[in-house]
Amino acid sequence: EGSLLSVLDLTCTPMGARLLRSRLLFPLQDRRQIQARLDAVENLLADPGRHRDLRKNLEQIYDLERLCSRLVLGHGNARDMSAMKVSLGRLPALKELLADSPPGLLHDIGDELDELADLHDLIDRAIRDDAPVTLRDGNLIREGFHEELDELIVLLRDGKQIILGLEQKERERTGIAKLKVGYNRVFGYYFEVRRSQAGAIPADFIRKQTLVNAERFITPELKELENKISTAQEKRLELEYTLFVDIRNRIAGQSERILNAAARLARLDFLASLAEGASRYHYSKPVITEGDEISIREGRHPVIERAMEPGRFVPNDVHLDQDKNELLIITGPNMAGKSTVLRQTALIVLMAHIGSFVPADHAQICIVDRIFTRVGAMDDLRRGQSTFMVEMNETANILNNATDRSLVILDEIGRGTSTYDGLAIAWAVVEELAEKNARGVKTLFATHYHELTDLAATRERIQNFSIAVREWNDSIIFLHKLVKGATNRSYGIQVAGLAGVPDHVVERAHEILKNIEQGEFNQRGEPTIASSRRQRQGERLPRQLSLFRPQDDPLRSLLKDINPDSLTPMEALQLLYQAKTILTDEQ
Predict the structure, then answer these.
(1) Pairing mode, if any, of strands 442-446 and 188-194?
(2) Suppose 295 and one of 32, 327, 364, 558 were both cysteines; which one would form an S-S bond, judging by CB atoms 3.0 to 4.6 Å apart?
(3) Which pTM does this prediction carry?
């Protein structure tokens, strides 16, 4: 949540979602391949009806890669088979929808897509739609698929009627109208006749029991039928399991074909998802070049704008090249939007390199070899690294590996150490990036060190930009607009007020800032930062401890009664030497 993936992932299948993630992690550097994807997305947008139908069919496709893996490993059950059948059943419709696509990726996907009709037909003929998850529970295989299984199913379902049919048959053969079939746990099934009719029994009847008024017999045919019925359930379960495993193995044997189809479906789903995002979020098709220019007009942050009400996000223009706009130093207060401009630029470039439309009115994007980012602040306790060490490690990686074809995003270099150290490091990093490989590196550099803006006067390819704000009384209004030119104020105290810092703390901060800027000191040489509030409140200030009481201060005693206007040059020089001697002795 809150990632570029969460915004772009409008895929219909798990395969497509995995491919989208992979392509975000491994963007293209080949202009022709990028252009082919962009053209495919454009073709889908040009035919909304076909795009909609493609997505409807894709929505009915299960995770074929996972299903295939389960079947190959021998773990697949009847539900997996049913999901496979449903998925394969959508392939003909998808192939037909892609058949009339213009030359390009969509046409190639449709042309290469194997409908796998034979596998769909096998599953459809063999596996019941209502088959249970557990393979040993039976009811897996459809009637009509296997002759022996059909016989067992008939026996189980119609066994009683078959017995009654045999009863009627024997009545007709023997002429004994009262002959009937019975059952008990001792003998199983038997024929029963009255004792008075026992003489009419055929020779193949075998007497099993004599009662007072009746005789009970069995026949080989009745016994065979009884054996079939009594073992039918066990045989059916075993046969169904054997048949299912055989079918599963036959499907698994075609795993390469299934995975090839799944790969093409993933590519189609990936492109359809990009088209859906472009349509839903009003993205535009970027122009991909082999040059050295990144030009974005009215660019937007793809993630942040989704969290805001429509029309509320403030778009910005960014132009980078290796002529006069190679390195942009961006200043401005916190919360104004410096980091947003940096990140949205990196995300737009990344989106263009996976073949996606981008959140901008117009974008011309050159091919970059890598996107380097140094943003945020966090330590690495696991490795025992401080925030500053992590920051420097990331900066070192950029300086050691960035080329003139890279895009570098740097946000607040040097803030993890002292002000002067941080400024010195940031200054040196800017110089290195501006001069690296003679051509320099396209860089967006956001900073609070306003001193860095002086670099623009020394190097033609460095430009100053800032995030515009408007002052209103004692507060500021963020305009979130990137404008040319530097700013010399951070508005940190105003931002603190907006964040809810208590008013008296904000007022005190204003006072301290004023004192720092004016370099004010009290009569004892103490900075008024520490004392002005207590003076205002009428408190007595503790004096700094001294080895001498004020009246015993040697230097004070020397100068106390001197009249400067009456001193000759030689006397003044001697007096100066005496004062120096006193100060040297005190040290």
Answers:
(1) unpaired
(2) 364
(3) 0.79
